Amino acid sequence: MLPEYRGKGYASQLLAHVRDVATVNDVKQVHLDSGYQLHPAHRLLNHGFVLNCLHFAYAV
To answer: Max Cα separation, the chain?
Structure first.
């Protein structure tokens, strides 16, 4: 993400929209992946997300 867009609440707005769409459509779970190096993205924990698995990738 470009620095000028950080801290403006866009991600929170997007997560709220995803939550609303999921609720309206009776979706039971939403899954997101975030790389370990993306420390600011880990604020998802502040939005009710929990770390419940590790996702591994292998580049070929």
So the answer is: 40
Of residues 29, 25, 27, the one with CA closest to residue 50:
29
Distance CA 9, CA 16 (A): 11
pLDDT in tens, 45-58: 777 777 777 777 76
Contact call for residues 34 and 44 (beta carbons, < 8 A): yes
CA 54/CA 30 separation, integer angstroms: 15
Specify whether the CB–CB gap between 30 and 15 falls below 8 A: no
The pLDDT averaged over each successive group of 10 residues in the chain (60 residues) is 82 88 91 69 72 70
- The answer to whether the pTM exceeds 0.85 is no
